[in-house]
Amino acid sequence: MNFIDTHSHLFSEEFTDDLPQVIERAKAAGISRIYMPNIDCSTIKPLLDTVSRFPGYCFPMLGLHPTSVNENFRDELSVMRKMLEEPNSFVAIGEVGMDLYWDKTFLQEQLEAFDTQIQWAAEYQLPLVIHSRDSFDEVLQVMKQNQDRVLKGIFHSFTGTLDEAEQLLQFDGFCLGINGVVTFKKSTLPEVLKRIPLERIVLETDSPYLTPAPNRGKRNESANLKDTLLKLAEIYQCTPDEVAEITTRNALKIFIS
């Protein structure tokens, strides 16, 4: 049984001491590929260094995370734009989007950065990995403004309502990224997902965050994706192999086809 972690920050400092072991555990668990979203200019080098250590297994994205958007965001975007113009190994634009959880100081800047990076995804024909926290309406607004562009990608870490899921899935080329949150005792996701086709779902960990049960409170890693997969098999009343096969096909359709 092989499946894909579509969102993991294995280049972060939390994995400095044991990354080779983390990768080995992921492979042993059945993880066949790991896609890694960037955060800002400071993380590009560790991201690419990690990819070079595990070629053909770890794949990099390029983007400016909304919580890293500040008064200097155009400078960061300029650096990334130049990297996209040169030969590179980036397989997606991500993670990008909106985050208004902490404050709305840079709301307008986040909107501009998000829109700019959507344009990159269309221009370079790369998938888009979208972060949204306390910003559903804003994300939806920007996406609708770009609905004439040819886009595909993932709405990362979906935890919303059925109505929100249905609105997001109106964008035909997109799937919902589901992670360890679905295993949390108070999560409402299981009931929502019963109404969402498995063909519109991809798996992710968001390592080192959002560790699924039964290991909540510990550092998350890609091997733990199996706990999320097993929960989805329970929700969809199918075998783990079926979840692995369908979600893998969904992920490859986004990142490769």
From TrEMBL:
<protein>
    <submittedName>
        <fullName>TatD family hydrolase</fullName>
    </submittedName>
</protein>
<dbReference type="InterPro" id="IPR018228">
    <property type="entry name" value="DNase_TatD-rel_CS"/>
</dbReference>
<keyword id="KW-0479">Metal-binding</keyword>
<comment type="similarity">
    <text>Belongs to the metallo-dependent hydrolases superfamily. TatD-type hydrolase family.</text>
</comment>
<dbReference type="InterPro" id="IPR032466">
    <property type="entry name" value="Metal_Hydrolase"/>
</dbReference>
<dbReference type="GO" id="GO:0016787">
    <property type="term" value="F:hydrolase activity"/>
</dbReference>
<dbReference type="Pfam" id="PF01026">
    <property type="entry name" value="TatD_DNase"/>
</dbReference>
<dbReference type="InterPro" id="IPR015991">
    <property type="entry name" value="TatD/YcfH-like"/>
</dbReference>
<dbReference type="InterPro" id="IPR001130">
    <property type="entry name" value="TatD-like"/>
</dbReference>
<keyword id="KW-0378">Hydrolase</keyword>
